[in-house]
Amino acid sequence: MPEPDAYQTPEPGGGPVHILAVLDSAGDAVKAALAGQPGYRLEMHDANSSACFPWPAGRQPDLILVEPPSADQDRLATWLREVADKAPDLPVLAIGGQLPVAAVRVLLSLRSGNAVPLPFTPSGLKAQIAAVMHAPGETETDGARCWSFMSAVGGAGATTLAIETAYQLHTASAIGGRVALVDLNFLDGACAACLDVPANLRLDEAADNPERIDAALIDAFASPHPCGFDVLVAARFLFGFERINAGAVGRLLDVCCTIYDHVVIDLPRWLQDWSLDVLAGSDAAILVSELTVPALHAARDLAQSLEEEGAEDGLHMQIVLNRMAKRVFGHSITVAEAQKALGRKAVGSIGSDWDIAVQAVNYGVPAGHINPKSKISKDVQMLIKTLHQHMLKSGPGTSQRLAS
Ligand SMILES: Nc1ncnc2c1ncn2[C@@H]1O[C@H](COP(=O)(O)OP(=O)(O)O)[C@@H](O)[C@H]1O
Ligand SMILES: [Mg+2]
Fold it and tell me: Fewest C-beta atoms under 10 Å: which of 193, 321, 330, 373?
C-alpha cells in the first residue's frame, strides 16, 4: 500500500476535519475542491491499491470519502460493510455516477451516509460534506437567520439578489453551514428557471395538513443546486396562491429554520395574507428598488405601508438600491438623491452588471459563480456584512416567530 498523501497538515489546536479519502478518478477533483481550505485535512489513498480499507492507525477520521476503482465497483460494498461494522457513526460520502445497488444499501444503513454524483463543483462537495457531518438531530434549532427579499416594482432585482445572497452565504459559511433559498412566488417564481433546478416544492399538497411538513418532507421538496445550497421552489401555476395558506407557509419556513443556518426567501410583490408574518419574522426584511423616480416612490410608499401594518411586530424594511450605474451623462440618480426621494437611508446599493446578470441566468448559476469579483457579488457581500451587523445588534434570530 502506498504511503498516504498527507495533503494538508493539521492545524495546531486540532481544528480541521480529518477526511480519509479513498479515491480513483475523483482524486484530483477532490484535492482541487479542498485545496487551501484550512478547515480540512485530506488523507488521500489510491482506491486501486487499497485491497483492504486503509484505516489510519490511532484516531479515527472525521469523515470518509470513498470511490470504488472503476474496474472493481463491487469493492465499494465490501468497504462500506467494513465501515458499518467498525464505525457505523462515521459520516461517509460515496462518490460515483452509478453506484452498485448493494453499496447503496449499506450506505443507507449508516447513520450518516450519502452519494455524490460526478461531476461535482468545489462548493457542491463542501456542501455535501457539511450536510453529512450535520447528522440528524444535531442541527441548531434556534440559530437560523432569515433574509427576505421583496421588489418595490417588478424587475427591480429581488430574485437576482436573493439568489446571490444564498450563494454568498453558502460560500462564506464554515463547515456545517447549510443554506436554503425558498421561492414563495407561487404564481410566477423564477428561481427554478434562473438556477436550472427542478421545481419540487409541493406545498399545496400539505396545505390542508401543515403539521405533515417535517424535515423528511423538506428534504423531498429541496432541489440541491450544484453550487452547494438547496432551492425550494414550486412549479409556476396560475392559481398558485389560492392553493397555499398561511399555516403551510409558516410551517415550511419554521421547519426550514431547524434544518438550515440561513433561509433566504424570495417574496412575491403582491401581498398575501402570510407576507407580513414572513417579513416580520425575518432577521432582514429587504425591499429592492431600482434607481428610477417611480421605483423609489413605490419603495418609499410600500416600505411605509408595510411598516404600519407590521408595527406591532416592529417590522423595519431595509431598502436596497439595485442596478446603480456610474454617473456618466448626468441622467442616473445618485445614492444621495435616491435617499432623498425615499425619505430614509438605504441599507446598501448594488452595482449594475448586465453582462454578468445575463450570463448567470443563461447558465443557471448565481452571478458570483460566473465572476466572484463582479459588482453584483462584491456589493451583495457588503450588503450581507452590513445586515449581519444589524442582526448582531438586535440579538438572537427571530426565525422562531415565523410559524406563530
Ligand atoms: N445588479 C444588476 N445588474 C444588472 N442586471 C440586473 C441586476 N439585478 C437584476 N438584474 C436583471 O434585472 C432583471 C430583473 O431582475 P429580477 O431579479 O428577476 O427582478 P425581480 O425578481 O425583482 O422581478 C433580470 O434580467 C436580472 O438579470
Ligand atoms: Mg422575481
Answer: 330
